[in-house]
Amino acid sequence: xxxxLSVFALIAILGNIAxxxxxxxxxxxxxxxxxxxxxxxxxxxxxxxxQVSLTNWSAGGENSxxxxxxxxxxxxxxxxxSTWDNSLDLAYGILQQGKADVRKTDDKIDLTSKYxxxxxxxxxxxxxxxxxxxMTTGYNYPDDSTEISNFLAPGYLLGAIGLDYKPSEVFTxxxxxxxxxxxxxxxxxxxxxxxYGVKPAEFDxxxxxxxxxxxxxxxxxxxxxxxxxxxxxxxxxxxxxxELFTNYSEEPNHIDVNWEVLIAMKVNKYISATISTQxxxxxxxxxxxxxxxxxxxxxxxxxxxxxEILGIGLSYRF
Length: 318
Description:
By secondary structure, this protein is mostly beta strands. It contains three helices and 18 strands. It has helices at about 1-20, 25-30, 190, and strands at about 40-50, 65-80, 80-95, 105-120, 125-135, 140, 145-150, 155-165, 170-185, 200-205, 210, 215-235, 235-245, 255-265, 270-280, 285-290, 300, 305-315.
């Protein structure tokens, strides 16, 4: 219950930030209401590069090169009482350290499309589709031979119908009591192992497969999505997204959480610093824990996952 209250407190804070507009801004919105119809597009493109080169360096270390790119795009249409919001977030990063092979450090595909028809005041009847996956194969480093992910392994496809609250252009809150979430595992080895919550393969006593693992899993439940995009100070833009999903039929008290934050700090027209974080919790994803780094797995189970990336490099916002 404390976790749920904390989540709703966070949503209230986001809504309060979004509502902090001046009276002049509100009057301007009323005066220009007719001019708001049409497409509004925008995005952030960022490419960050880090290099370390050492020659006869007595303190030790390794040469390294890392590249990380972020692409965040939006295209929103308003026409009368109808709205159509679209967003695409892509991220990819690689690291070359010493003589080791190139390793992947970041990989994300997140596509969302939402259509709404005005119901009353700032509320819309809405339908939403979301797709998440990654682009290339992922490994359980330092083991670079054991594949743990790939394109559509996993892939997540979510469809929801509900109400969308849009008090301003910077904040939206979508609430859906009717949601279907599909988990796709388009890799038979991972499906046979029961990765990402799909039904695993059945084996006989000699290790022969009696029935293959299923490549998909469907869940039905409730979904909440809060999105805030705002310039919090001069040359500093904040984008944050919170997604919650609960499965009605299987342990509804276990809430899947996806919370993403992207802060872009502009130095000049093309150079900026970006900070991106992502917090994940999915009760169907088991994480292996090696507490002593001795190759022996001490525990397996769902865990809170966290990723943070700080980059300084070329960036363009439009």
